[in-house]
Amino acid sequence: MLRFHFTAEDLTRIRVARAPDPLWEVAVSLHRFQTRDGRWAYAHWYRTARLRLREAGLDHAVRNFLLPVFPRASYFPDFLTPAEGEQGLDAGLDAVLAAPRGQVSEEAARLAVSVGAPSWVSRLADDDMRGRLVRTLRAYHRAVIAPYGEQVDACVQAERIRLARALLDRGTGGLLGSLAPTIRWRHPVLEVAPYPEERDVHLHGMGLLLIPSYFCWKSPIALADAGLPPVIVYPLQRDPVPAPVPGDGQPLAALLGRTRAGILRATATGATTSEAARGAGVSAATATHHTAALRDTGLITSTRWANTVLHTLTPLGAALLTTETKSKPPTA
């Protein structure tokens, strides 16, 4: 079990990542190749990812270079998922390159001991080997993560809205109590179980960054070094990963009609089915029908939590509403 111990100050320093963290998504997506657990939820991505990696000539590099340093085990190096990843892929990869040589050597040695990594792992402290690693990570992200960028971002933004509502409705305890099913809030301790090791993290006023992850499956992950800014990466509650939505505009024909437009506008700040129904002036059953159509055309995403479904805009839906707003004539 993993336990985060909060002080009163820590409870005021809880943050939710503003966007998907590209290096954490790389890390946990590589875990998807190492187990059949949850394969059904990523079936489309898994098939297309393998094809894209072969087409890009990356299948050998992934199998023999990336998987050994990102094992689906109790440990992989912290320098591979730096805090700078929150600012985007380029910033994260720059931080990987700039990681202190001593830190990299220490973490590579721990990896070799914990999972029996290949002997070349010790050379990750060398600039040339780390440069090769960063180039491979960038190519991997471009091949199998970037094509799903809009879906990943839409799910993370929907989760941020869901957590904001939990905070406003039920306070900090409600927010912490509404995370992944394997996370339990028992004031003043946030428990993660099961976890590969027994561990206690005392936050001591540092707060905690919550990182919802698209490719994380069931088991949350934390950094191994308690001296680093504390984070917890946890799986989003969502449906199986769909195919990327084509951007040719053809699905928008399904949006004709006042009711669907009203429901789409209602989801701009997040709306449950009943809230969308009230906003559009229709019954909940009718709203359910229209939210299904909007979801099928890639304009909204729907996230179920307990007995509630929260609908939020996808980037395509947001772009449509922005276009609608810009096209309206100015009022006198």
List the helices and strands and how they pair.
Elements: E1 2-5, H1 8-11, E2 14-16, H2 22-32, H3 43-55, H4 59-66, H5 89-98, H6 101-115, H7 127-145, H8 149-176, E3 183-186, E4 189-192, E5 199-202, E6 208-213, E7 221-222, E8 231-235, H9 258-266, E9 271-272, H10 273-280, H11 284-296, E10 300-305, E11 308-313, H12 315-327
Parallel strand pairs: 1-5, 2-6, 6-8
Antiparallel strand pairs: 1-4, 3-4, 7-8, 9-11, 10-11
Helix pairs in contact: 2-7, 4-7, 5-7, 9-10, 9-11, 10-11
Brief synopsis:
The protein has 332 residues and is an alpha/beta fold. The protein has 12 helices and 11 strands.
Q: What key attributes describe this structure?
A:
alpha/beta; 332 residues; 4-stranded mixed sheet; 12 helices; globular
Characterization of the model:
By secondary structure, this protein is of the alpha/beta class. It is 45% helix and 14% strand. The chain has a 4-stranded mixed beta sheet, with no helix packed on it. Strands 2-6-8-7 form a 4-stranded mixed beta sheet. β3 and β4 form a beta hairpin. The radius of gyration is 21 Å and the shape is globular. The chain starts with a strand and ends in a 5-residue tail after the last helix.
